[in-house]
Amino acid sequence: MSRGNVHVTGVDPDLPPAIDPCFLNSDFDTIILLELLKFVIELGRTSSLSDIIAQRTEPGPRVASDNALISYIRSNAAGGSHLIGTAALAPRKFGGVDSSLKVYGTSNLRIVDASIIPNHIVSHTQSSVYAISELTADMITRSA
Ligand SMILES: Cc1cc2nc3c(=O)[nH]c(=O)nc-3n(C[C@H](O)[C@H](O)[C@H](O)COP(=O)(O)OP(=O)(O)OC[C@H]3O[C@@H](n4cnc5c(N)ncnc54)[C@H](O)[C@@H]3O)c2cc1C
Fold it and tell me: Is the Chaperone keyword given for this protein (predicted)?
């Protein structure tokens, strides 16, 4: 649920953009990762797995309280090259695209890529981009 941002850094189009994903800006994301980490630690303690897992090296047995685990998450969580949502299919206040994937405030400019995905999907992104492309091609063909 954290919302990042992308901005130009100057008038030269070759300048790299400033990208801030704002990971873990949302408490919801932090709590989800906390619960996930606790679940995985617990899973490793089950009899069927504890026999084959020699020892828990990270984050270590002394990192046990919620606050300590959150601190561990904040220091170690990383993105997975699946950035989305910079032109989200969402209400106008978020500044992305409408239900026909047209940019708010324009009459015929569509965005058709991973940037329109409003919330992260529980999978890799590439096949969703293919699906978005196919659906939009149909939408454009029908409206032509
Ligand atoms: C290292 C890495 C590994 C990944 N592994 C997987 C994986 O295993 N499975 C999976 O499903 N997904 C994977 N992904 C994610 C997936 O590749 C992306 O989510 C997907 O490619 C996004 O598609 P897109 O069309 O939105 O953007 P892109 O594929 O980035 O396409 C954007 C295109 O726009 C062009 N472009 C940019 N600026 C301009 C401009 N000014 N004028 C003209 N053209 C421009 C670029 O050259 C590019 O061709 C991976 C991503 C990375 C970085």
Answer: no
